[in-house]
Design goal:
It is built from 4 helices and no strands. The chain is mostly helical.
């Protein structure tokens, strides 16, 4: 029986994963560490409740629906359009040079205040 004094082949992968035959600390440091992976667990909305929902809770749930949000967005769009039309009307009534000068909303309001004050002064004289 002949003993093999040559080291193991370097290009062959180890037969089993884990620490090598020596079992040193360096092999243990390179061993894969199990990692906890978070798993998505479905969460129930709320357990069934015996008491009725409060008015605020009912309102909150109703506002969370897609139908409510789209209706609200439509109402808001109409409101903003009406707001802008009112500013455009007010702007047409105010004298400025040049007449087609673009004014911001705050400038329109300030100019309207000054113009009303001027008209009151004219009436008082």
């Amino acid at each position: 029986m002949m003993l093999n004094s040559e080291p193991a082949a370097l290009d062959a992968p180890p037969a089993r994963p884990g620490p090598g035959p020596a079992g040193g600390a360096a092999d243990a440091a390179l061993a894969p560490v199990p990692v906890a992976v978070p798993v998505a667990v479905p969460v129930a909305e709320e357990p069934a409740r015996k008491e009725p929902l409060s008015r605020e809770e009912r309102r909150r749930r109703r506002r969370a629906t897609a139908k409510y949000r789209t209706a609200h967005a439509t109402r808001e769009r109409i409101r903003v359009e009406a707001f802008n039309v009112a500013f455009a009307e007010l702007r047409r009534l105010l004298p400025t040079l040049p007449p087609d000068k673009k004014l911001s909303k705050i400038e329109i309001l300030r100019l309207a205040i000054c113009y009303i004050s001027y008209l009151n002064h004219v009436l008082d004289v």
